[in-house]
UniProtKB/TrEMBL annotation, chain A:
Keyword Metal-binding attached: yes
InterPro entries, per database record: ChlB/BchB/BchZ, Nase/OxRdtase_comp1, Nase_comp1_CS, Nase_Mo-Fe_CF_bsu
Cofactors, names only: [8Fe-7S] cluster
Co-factor remark: Binds 1 [8Fe-7S] cluster per heterodimer.
Family to which the UniProt record says this protein belongs: Belongs to the NifD/NifK/NifE/NifN family.
Nitrogenase/oxidoreductase component domain ranges (all copies): 23-440
Protein name per the record: Nitrogenase molybdenum-iron protein beta chain
UniProt keyword list: ATP-binding, Iron, Iron-sulfur, Metal-binding, Nitrogen fixation, Nucleotide-binding, Oxidoreductase
Matches recorded under PANTHER family: LIGHT-INDEPENDENT PROTOCHLOROPHYLLIDE REDUCTASE SUBUNIT B
Automatic annotation (TrEMBL), chain B:
Keyword S-adenosyl-L-methionine: no
Classification lineage: Bacteria, Pseudomonadati, Thermodesulfobacteriota, Dissulfuribacteria, Dissulfuribacterales
Name listed for the protein in its UniProt record: Nitrogenase iron-molybdenum cofactor biosynthesis protein NifE
Domain Nitrogenase/oxidoreductase component residues, every copy: 39-434
Lineage: superkingdom: Bacteria
InterPro entries (UniProt xref): Nase/OxRdtase_comp1, Nase_comp1_CS, NifE, NifE-like
Residue stretches in coiled coil: none
Length: 457, 447
């Protein structure tokens, strides 16, 4: 199907072909699911909410709950205020969440619904019951990407709840970024093993990887609790993992409650994980237990065992900026050559950072923020690669060009594992190593003539 | 069962036998409900999407394009232009200054690059608000390129999915009427309302071929612009499903005097009925004989194969929640054929007539529901002690979380469920999920 992608590259200004991103509200919805007892609410037409739920359902294979303001023609003319009031009534009456996290859509943004006033009025009129919360963020679909939406909703958690209340001075905040429930679980495990008290937000573990219990629950047991969000303002420091998805919340916390922060790359790959652990040591003075050092050692051991299979291989990577930045660095440390790197999310920092990482390894890397998969495919046609890494949509290119393919990032609609096995931390690095090696060695086996087909590799 | 039903929704839920039948439908969803419904754009997009040699350009922010990118598995026998995601990816400045120029540039570039047979330009919520005149852009580009560019007025907020079907049909009627209809057989049909999921339309086309009937066009599954442009040359429109393309059949009747019949290709009775009714229409002895022979032949193969499944499945209980209600009729019959009992049936977009028929064909005690939500559905499933739930993407994990079987009778089906072979596939799928050993490991179900 992609055999019509031309090799020659031309400037396109008005057109996106096979995008490498999606819109803000889905990211906001995902972040909201990381609050305990929260019902995400989409302020706009039904379609947006249906699409976001379907897309997330396909990725997580879990029921994704979210309500919608169900805009009609009337609401788009007269504003969605009445719809939001009715929605909040319905939600608290029937679904009884502790908190409703409202995100806007391009429709409600453009007609200019003033969410803070609407929420304030609903509170005054008793539509929001005592002890219940409604927070919101603005997520116009025509700005940024799903990563921006995640970042905005995470910042909204700070905006509505963070207080300098003197709760605990030795707690650290960790903003995990737009990662899988498995990654959030792994980050908690690492921090926990270091004996550090932490508040992780948002936290979708135990929400989107919930076990089979023969019952349906609107609000599975996971998610950051509101009292913890309130305490974030009293933490010692915030560690934000991933500049694109997590810096917003950290800077806001600093402004509001003077909690200093550090922005780190997502701890994907060995060096980025090292930096995360080092940062934990630095801010808490605690040393990692032997178990963590052992994990690291195992990663290095695999890398040394298999280095010849990675060395010099050309790779194309695409996906969300935070993931792609760390992955690119990991590839460089494996002796590979990331030659084509694309994210759909806009932002100049991405290109700068990637060029910094591949400096001295790849002479003229193709790097683009705000790009799409059509462009990536064209680059690959001009300079073929040995491995393609990205979300499910990469399978079209992998097939068209017959390239080994590792699924990584969001969304993954055609495989499972991503929400159960982390890619962050040393364990995550091990899993990535296994996946990449499998892809490369399966290909070597497949292509080898009988005479070169080997048992031991 | 009233515990979980919203007060405002009680008119949309009915338990057969509990008082005289009355069900509200076609209402806007209550704001705040976790509705399973989608929007106008979604309706138009799904109807037009399987036209494989047309360009589908979505004018709006990126999400609308991403979420409908190759998501339904509508198969093509050759070109696959429908599987791309093309979007104008509107940004903030376009929303302020208007996106018409961008749209025109995008359309021109795509037409030059992909040389489509026609182009559909979909309007999204935001385009409706900022007021881009996509009709004017389409007209200009058509003139410049000679390619028919058709605006699809599918702003999401202008109703529900059903309104989107109609918008798609209004777009489609523009394609019909240009083609040369010389030489079309007097025994000819258009197939409407099938999307060729898992190759289903190929099964149905083969049946018509064996009956001696020419299929002029398939609208929209495995659809081709050129065939559709000749659709007015067919003698009969055969419309499947609850109404995605019913509006088109009506328009074609008015404009070209082509009669239509509504059929279902799901289940044995409905499949046979569909073919007989088509044969009847042509009043030709040979066609009728061919049809009888075909059906006999297929049933002789099918019945022995179904027996095994029936023995194990008899007495099991099924729940159905689908997009269009028409599908539900066939499903109820199909479950009966397997000896199973349908205890819940509902749809997102059923009409008054649909629900009246559902009431007529279901057993007492069956819950009939319009525009339901996960909380209601899961309560109903528990209450009725269901063994299998039939639904779409968002229903699947709910069923699994409850520890019951699931069958996708929506667009995620991977096996053809239409035709006689489809009944076999359906039985096999129901069997494999209901009888799966995995349920042994599910914690004991709560009272």
């Amino acid at each position: 199907m992609l055999n019509m992608t031309p090799k020659e590259i031309f400037e396109r200004k008005a057109l996106r072909i096979n995008p490498a991103k999606t819109c803000q509200p889905i990211g906001a919805l995902y972040a909201s699911l990381g609050i305990h007892n929260c019902l995400p609410h989409s302020h706009g037409s039904q379609g947006c909410c249906a699409y976001h739920r379907s897309h997330l359902t396909r990725h997580y294979k879990e029921p994704i709950m979210a309500s919608t303001s169900s805009f009609t023609e009337g609401s788009s003319v007269f504003g969605g205020g009445a719809n939001l009031r009715q929605a909040l009534k319905t939600i608290f009456q029937v679904y009884d969440p502790e908190i409703v996290a409202v995100h806007t859509t391009c429709l409600s943004e453009t007609i200019g619904d003033d969410l803070p006033s609407l929420i304030k009025k609903a509170r005054e009129d008793g539509i929001i019951p005592e002890g219940k919360f409604v927070i919101h963020t603005n997520t116009p679909s025509y700005v940024g990407s799903h990563v921006t939406g995640f970042s905005n909703m995470t910042a909204a958690m700070v905006k509505y709840f963070a207080k300098k209340n003197g709760a605990s001075k030795d707690t650290i905040n960790v903003v995990p970024g737009y990662v899988e429930p498995s990654d959030m679980r792994e980050i908690k495990r690492l921090v926990g093993q270091m004996g550090i008290k932490y508040i992780l937000f948002p936290d979708t573990s135990d929400v989107l990887d919930s076990p089979q219990r023969a019952r349906f629950s609107m609000y599975p047991k996971g998610g950051v609790k509101i009292e913890d969000l309130k305490d974030t303002g009293s933490s010692k420091i915030t560690l934000s993992l991933g500049k694109f998805a997590s810096e917003g919340a950290a800077t806001l916390l600093d402004q509001m409650c003077e909690v200093p922060y550090k922005v780190l790359d997502l701890p994907i790959g060995i060096a980025a994980t090292d930096r995360f652990i080092e940062a934990l040591i630095e801010v808490t003075g605690k040393e990692p237990p032997e178990s963590i050092t052992d994990e690291r050692g195992r990663v290095v051991d695999i890398m040394t065992d298999m280095l010849q299979y990675f060395h010099g291989k050309k790779v194309a990577v695409f996906g969300d900026p935070d993931q792609v930045i760390s992955m690119t660095e990991f590839l460089v440390h494996l002796g590979m050559k990331p030659v084509h790197i694309v994210t759909g999310t806009p932002g100049k920092y991405f290109e700068r950072r990637i060029k910094e990482i591949v400096k001295g390894v790849v002479d003229n890397p193709n790097v683009k923020a705000f790009g799409d998969l059509f462009l990536l495919h064209q680059w690959i046609k001009n300079e073929p690669v040995d491995l393609l890494i990205g979300n499910t949509y990469g399978k079209y290119i992998a097939r068209a060009e017959d390239i080994p393919f590792v699924r990584f990032g969001f969304p993954i609609l055609d495989r499972i594992g991503h929400s159960y096995f982390p890619t962050v931390g040393y364990r995550g690095a091990m899993r990535l190593l296994e996946k990449m090696l499998d892809a490369l060695l399966d290909r070597q086996d497949r292509d080898a003539p009988d005479s070169k087909f080997e048992l031991v590799m | 069962m009233n515990g979980v039903v919203l007060k405002e929704r009680t008119g949309q839920v009915y338990e057969k036998g509990a008082g005289p039948f009355k069900l509200q439908c076609n209402l806007d969803s209550l704001p705040g409900a976790v509705s399973q419904r989608a929007c106008v754009f979604c309706g138009s997009r799904v109807v037009l999407y399987p036209i494989t040699d047309a360009l589908h350009l979505i004018h709006g922010p990126i999400g609308c394009a991403v979420y409908t990118w190759d998501i339904r598995g509508a198969l093509s026998s050759d070109r696959e232009l429908h599987r791309f995601s093309f979007s104008t990816d509107l940004r903030e400045k376009d929303v302020i200054f208007g996106g018409e120029k961008k749209l025109e540039a995008a359309l021109l570039e795509l037409i030059e690059r992909y040389n489509p047979e026609a182009a559909f330009v979909y309007s999204t919520c935001i385009v409706g608000i900022i007021g881009d005149d996509i009709g004017a852009v389409c007209k200009r580009v058509s003139k410049k390129t000679g390619i028919k560019c058709i605006p699809v007025q599918s702003e999401g907020f202008k109703g529900n999915k059903r309104a989107g079907y109609e918008a798609a049909c209004r777009a489609l009627i523009n394609l019909i009427g240009d083609g040369d209809i010389e030489g079309i057989s007097p025994f000819s049909v258009n197939i409407l309302g099938d999307f060729n999921l898992a190759g289903e339309i190929w099964i149905i086309k083969d049946y018509y071929r064996r009956m001696g009937i020419e299929v002029v066009s398939t609208i929209t599954g495995d659809g081709r612009v050129k065939d559709i442009s000749r659709a007015h040359g067919a003698k009969l429109n055969v419309v499947q499903c609850s109404g995605a393309t019913l509006a088109l059949a009506k328009m074609m009747k008015e404009k070209y005097g082509i009669p239509y019949i509504r059929v279902s290709y799901f289940g044995v009775d409905d499949m046979a009925d569909a073919l007989y009714r088509v044969a009847d229409f042509f009043k030709d002895r040979q066609i009728m004989e061919n049809t009888k022979a075909l059906i006999n032949d297929e049933l002789n193969k099918l019945y022995p194969a179904l027996k095994e499944f029936r023995r194990e499945l008899a007495g099991k209980r099924a729940a159905i929640y689908v997009g269009g209600a028409f599908k539900a009729f066939s499903l109820i019959k199909a479950f009966r054929l397997l000896g199973m009992k349908v205890v819940l049936v509902g749809s997102q977009t059923g009409t008054k007539e649909d629900y009246e028929e559902l009431e007529a064909i279901t057993d007492p005690g069956t819950i009939i529901v319009d525009d339901s939500n996960p909380l209601e559905l899961s309560e109903f499933l528990k209450e009725k002690k269901v063994d299998i739930f039939v639904g779409g993407v968002k229903e699947r994990p709910i069923a699994y979380k409850l520890g019951i079987g699931f069958c996708d009778h929506n667009h995620e089906r991977k096996e053809a469920l239409e035709g006689f072979i489809g009944m076999y596939n359906f039985a096999k799928e129901v069997y494999s999920t209901v009888m799966s050993p995995v349920w042994r490991f599910v914690p004991r179900k709560e009272g």
